[in-house]
User: What shape does this take?
Amino acid sequence: MRRLVIDVRPGEYAIARLDATAALPPPLLDPVDGELVSLTRTATELSVVCPAAVAPRDADVEGDWRLLSVRGPLAFTLTGIIAALSSELAAAGVALFSLSTFDTDHVLVKAADLGRAVIALKAAGHEVHGV
Assistant: This one.
């Protein structure tokens, strides 16, 4: 696996679940200064990843997540990035939630596990910034 540059993004994130037929929460559609917001609808849910401060109040919300973003853009032909990150974090006993965008990959780890995550990623040869 090639060496990745990973940025620990500031602030706390939340992962929320709404009913599949729920309307998109309007505050999440407004531009957020440098913060990630991801909305994914399936047949069974509307899943939201967002800064904790703007998490939908009428949702099942799991808070206390920290966001780690791989610096991109990454070519679509690259393989194994999430596999490498997840195996490195799993070996350190760190659970994760992953998502990808057009440009790059992101993982969220519980705030209590952030220190162990950073140590594991650095030990695997990655460059980690923002801690």
About this structure: Residues 5-129 form a domain with the VC0802-like fold (CATH 3.30.2130.10). The beta strands are 5-8, 13-18, 38-41, 46-51, 60-70, 97-100, 105-110, 127-129.
